[in-house]
Amino acid sequence: MSTKIDEWLLEILACPKSKAPLRLDEEAGELVCDESGLAYPIRDGIPVLLVDEARSIG
């Protein structure tokens, strides 16, 4: 699955748990926070930045 997020949007998004920047994992279709160890799904092109919806990558 390939997911595209505009660069300007990626620059302003932050992890709701750690407030750290997110990086895009296009292959997995997720936004990843290395600091908190969470990956947030992108559904229908919309990032779902809810800690309860994130999966642990740790």
What does this structure look like?
- This is UPF0434 protein EV190_10957.
- One of its GO terms (cellular component) is cytosol.
- It comes from Actinorugispora endophytica.
- The chain is mainly beta.
- It has one domain: Single Sheet (N-terminal domain of TfIIb).
- Helix content is 10%, strand content 29%.
- The protein is built from one helix and five strands, in the order αβββββ.
- The chain has one helix at 7-12; strands at residues 23-25, 30-33, 38-43, 46-47, 55-56.
- Strands 1, 2, 3, 4 and 5 form a five-stranded antiparallel β-sheet that branches.
- A hairpin with a 4-residue loop joins strand 1 (23-25) and strand 2 (30-33).
- The chain is globular, with a radius of gyration of 10 Å.
- The protein starts with 6 loop residues before the first helix and ends with a strand.
- The model has no long low-confidence stretch (mean pLDDT 93).
Rough shape? globular
CATH fold naming: N-terminal domain of TfIIb
Q: What's the Cα radius of gyration?
A: 10 Å
Biggest sheet: strands, sense, closure?
5 strands, antiparallel
CATH architecture descriptor name: Single Sheet
Mean pLDDT: 93
Roughly how many Å apart are the termini? 22 Å
Count of DSSP H/I helices: 1
Structural class label: mainly beta
Number of structural units classed as domains: 1
Low-pLDDT runs of 5+ residues are: none
Q: Oligomeric form of this entry?
A: single chain
Q: Helix proportion of residues, in percent? A: 10-25%
Q: Please report which band the strand proportion falls in: under 5%, 5-15%, 15-25%, 25-35%, 35-45% or over 45%.
A: 25-35%
CATH class: Mainly Beta
Question: Could you spell the SSE succession in H and E letters?
Answer: HEEEEE
Protein name: UPF0434 protein EV190_10957
Organism: Actinorugispora endophytica
InterPro entries: Trm112-like
Family: Belongs to the UPF0434 family.
